[in-house]
Specification:
Chains A, B: Its cofactor is Zn(2+); Mn(2+). Chains A, B: It is an enzyme of class 3 (hydrolase). Chains A, B: Keywords: Hydrolase, Manganese, Metal-binding, Zinc. Chains A, B: This is N-carbamoyl-L-amino acid hydrolase. Chains A, B: Its EC number is 3.5.1.87. The structure is a homodimer of 417-residue chains. By secondary structure, chain A is an alpha+beta fold. Chain A has 2 domains: 290 residues, Aminopeptidase (3-Layer(aba) Sandwich); 113 residues, Alpha-Beta Plaits. Helix content of chain A is 35%, strand content 24%. The first copy, chain A, contains 12 helices and 18 strands. In chain A, the strands form 4 sheets. In chain A, strands 2, 3, 4, 6, 7, 8, 16, 17 and 18 form a 9-stranded mixed β-sheet that branches. In chain A, strands 9, 11, 12, 14 and 15 form a 5-stranded antiparallel β-sheet that branches. In chain A, strands 1-5 form a two-stranded antiparallel sheet. In chain A, helix 1 packs antiparallel against helix 3, helix 8 packs antiparallel against helix 9 and helix 10 crosses helix 12.
């Protein structure tokens, strides 16, 4: 344990966040950010991070799918390490704080501890997970899924992107080689893993709180729906003869919204975020529509019941509209519970810093959901303005960032003693 | 008038249709066709047509937006010409008969008349209209709209495609220069214009008829809708706080379908063929959705009343869903009536050939809708299997094609006397 509040250089941290945001494929300038895994832009962001790690004297290791570990060696090389970190990929037209704050705050926490003269017994590692976002391959957290054994190398290798290239080909093309089986971490690799993240919700701001100590992560499920009707010329096929795939899909999307709003769990959320129309011409009746479903709840059983209800009601709509419906569940992960020892360390660190805090649940999922399978896990949330995330106007103030890094630094120091 | 049935080489015609279908950007092979205006593929198709025209001894003229006129000179060079023709562009993943049949049948009819020894007094011209399909610029029939004065050169020039390039820039880049004001045809240019087209509906096939003599073309309207809600992370924003643009748009699309099905006119059809979701990520709440509306009726007043009703009901949905709605009517053209003299010429030609025929209405719109503003207009329909169009399985038999070309040839001969 260290006694004083670690000296955090928040200007440096904000500068690094801005430099990272400038590495983007978004047509709009920062703070709008697009950074999709295994693109040139993703690779440039990785190079930038490596330069920061090396400047801080950390030892960098990259695994066969690009998960990156930057280690500050502890005095006991045989002891399991303490991990922190998050991701740096960003969905199209997103903001500059989601994920990046967890990676750069981990680095800043280490620099602050180094400056304080603290010497860890356990090594402390900052992890940058590959592809937390599901943008390219349809499944999120592929880095941490493979690390934790939540997904097999064979299943990962055959995920495909929109160009129909498989994950294995794309990662190799990006320069990440080696055997996928080597990505999985041994069970004793981490003694503790703690991720700092913006809340992506409104609770901390509303309660004027600086720190959330996450006790559990909600259970996400993802599914794809394909509706097949009959195309034709928009002028020539009269209404009673139509089997319009988009009209049927529209009715399904409205039904999904109604089901989610009527759920017994107030935490259940359902989102159709992606939809594609075939052939997609102004004067052509849609013959095929595909759409995604993202369904989450902190109550895993309720989430599964709602997924079942959605399947039943969309099938009924398909029957009535005389279209075919296929749905495929891509993943339906169980919720994760934080390790009480880590939650306590976060709470005590915030308390000793005089930061207002609360225990809370994460409704968004994170790499920590999967890290919980291979290590005792905890998370630290900091407030973001209006609870906004995945948008260019996502924002956490320098004060919020500083409080987060200080809490993280004390927590890591405690866990690495 | 010629006395014998013109000798049509239907094998040659089918071969030319297939050759044209092979000039395609569709990833699937013919009969699937994609040929969008001013692409390399469109230009290759135009080159192919020119080679056929020149082999038939026709004089080719191309106007400043690429409308192409192939003239068989009549004995009286001062007399207004007789026009026929259609378009060769194809929406994504379409078939090989829509439009192309009208262009190549016009050529085949001329070749048949030439072979018969017939000499026209009026010149006979095959027209290939630029961009009948609205795929690229959101508005269909730009070639015939400009020819007929239905659209001003200034309005045409500023239409934009998805890359945000304007029509004027794109046509120049494709090699079509000259002043847009020169495209408009003088009122005495054509003494008659008659277009042959597949029906794109089921009536002729159902009635076992070879020829439809079109008496009127339904009135189309097109509008764009933009729904703006609030984005955010799919996991973090609870259902009661959501203003999801896609859920609102879905409700609107279902409402449009209901309104169209309940319309007092059985000929009213409403289609949402194109929809785009922003940002379009699996785990992001849609903040913006744009969709197209295509609305047609042979009763122009009913169509306008339905458009009004759609505007009112979608506004109500927007208010209830707390999203913003903008709608913009791109065009709402009046219906067109065929010239009785041309309808009679078609009917008499079919009768003299012993082809079963009927007078009928066109529910799809065509370049002839606009040509009616600048010339006496008529259309000849031939059956297509199952009424299917705008799909790869669009099909008209060689027999149907032969009957159509013969009827067209006799009609042109009668009109060009």
């Amino acid at each position: 344990m260290i006694n004083d509040a670690p000296q955090v250089d928040v200007e440096r941290l904000v500068g690094e966040l801005q430099a990272l945001a400038a590495i983007s494929d978004c047509p709009e300038p920062p703070p709008a950010v697009t950074r999709v895994v295994f693109t040139e832009t993703d690779l440039r962001a990785r190079d930038y991070l490596r330069s920061l790690y090396e400047a801080a004297g950390l030892t960098v290791r990259v695994d066969p799918i690009g998960n990156t570990f930057a280690r500050w060696h502890g005095s006991d090389p045989k002891a399991s390490a303490v991990g922190t970190g998050s991701h740096c990929d960003a969905i199209p037209h997103a903001g500059m704080y989601d994920g990046t704050v967890g990676v750069l705050s981990g680095l800043e926490a280490i620099r602050a501890l180094q400056a304080s003269g603290y010497q860890p017994r356990r090594s402390i590692e900052v992890v940058m997970f590959t592809s937390e976002e599901p943008t390219r391959f349809g499944v999120g957290c592929t880095g941490s899924r493979l690390m934790s054994g939540a997904m097999s190398p064979a299943d990962l290798a055959k995920l495909t992107d929109e160009a129909d290239d498989d994950y294995d080909t794309v990662r190799r093309r990006a320069g990440f080689t080696g055997e996928l089986s080597e990505v999985r971490l041994p069970g004793d690799y981490y003694d503790a893993f703690v991720e700092l993240h913006i809340e992506q919700g409104p609770e901390l701001e509303a309660g004027d709180l600086a720190i959330g100590a996450v006790t559990a992560i909600a259970a996400p499920a993802q599914a794809n729906f394909t509706v097949t009707g009959e195309g034709g010329h928009a002028g020539a096929v009269l209404m009673p003869r139509r089997r319009d795939a988009l009209v049927a899909a529209a009715e399904m999307i409205a039904a999904i919204d109604s089901i989610a709003r009527a759920s017994r769990s107030p935490d259940l959320v359902a989102t159709v975020g992606k939809l594609e129309v075939h052939p997609g011409a102004v004067n052509s009746i849609p013959s095929k529509v595909t759409f995604s479903l993202d369904l989450r709840d902190i109550d895993g059983a309720n989430r599964d019941a709602v997924l079942k209800q959605i399947e039943v009601e969309t099938e009924q709509i398909a029957t009535r509209r005389e279209v075919q419906l296929e749905h495929r569940t891509l993943n339906a992960d169980p919720p994760a519970t934080s390790d009480p020892r880590i939650v306590d360390a976060v709470v005590q660190s915030a308390t000793s810093l005089g930061q207002a805090h609360q225990k809370m649940i994460s409704r968004a999922y994170h790499d920590s959901l999967f890290m919980a399978r291979v290590a005792p896990m905890g998370m630290i949330f900091i407030p973001c303005r209006g609870g906004v995330s995945h948008r260019p106007d996502e924002y956490s103030s320098p004060e919020a960032l500083a409080a987060g890094v200080q809490t993280l630094a004390l927590t890591l120091a405690e866990l690495a003693r």
